[in-house]
Amino acid sequence: MAPRVFGLPALPRLNSGIARCLPVATTVLAALLTILPVRIPGYATLTPALALMATYHWAIYRPELLPPFALFAIGLGEDLLSGAPIGATALLLLMARAGVVKYRRYFVNQPFPFVWAGFTVLAGVAMLAFWALHCALAASLLDIRTTVFRLVLTIAFFPVASFLLGRAQRAVIGDG
């Protein structure tokens, strides 16, 4: 008997331009919502990492539709508009995509709690790396409480973002 080869299911090809643009468009929208100028004191610490959520979702379900150069541009744009160190978010999103794509076979066709647990690990590593980068650039130890608070909000908001991204995916692309 020949050994069984376990692989990922083949994804259907897309002919629609709208379907091909959906992952990039939703990630851009997520980045814009993150840096939306709202006159609420401390708003920056109250916003979850929405672009990270979109990157995670699309890296699992349709990685070929969210190319690295698009993530780099989105991250660079978010950095320029938010005042973050130039390239930090771009690097974060690219590293997140690379890690998720590498282990994607473990997340496809899994129950949501497993996918959420994977996001929790990714978000924790990403947020702590972002905090460490800020500390290195400031040459001092910054308060980690805002980072932890933002991490908790990001993890807590992930089910809502995942639901919305999944609905958009099923409505426009049709798989999922």
Structural description of this entry:
By secondary structure, the chain is mainly α. It has one domain. Helix 1 runs antiparallel to helix 7, helix 3 packs parallel to helix 5 and helix 4 runs antiparallel to helix 5.
Helix amount = 55-70%
Low confidence ranges: none
Question: Based on helices, strands and strand pairing, what is the structural class?
Answer: mainly alpha
The end-to-end distance, rounded to whole angstroms, is 33 Å
Q: Major β-sheet, in short? A: none
Number of domains: 1
Strand content: under 5%
- Could you state the order of secondary-structure elements as H and E? HHHHHHH
Q: Rough shape?
A: globular
Summary tags:
mainly alpha; 176 residues
Summarize the structure.
This protein is mainly alpha-helical and 176 residues long. It has 7 helices and no strands. The protein has one domain (18-34, 45-173).
SSE diagram, text form:
Elements: H1 17-34, H2 43-46, H3 50-61, H4 68-82, H5 88-102, H6 112-138, H7 145-173
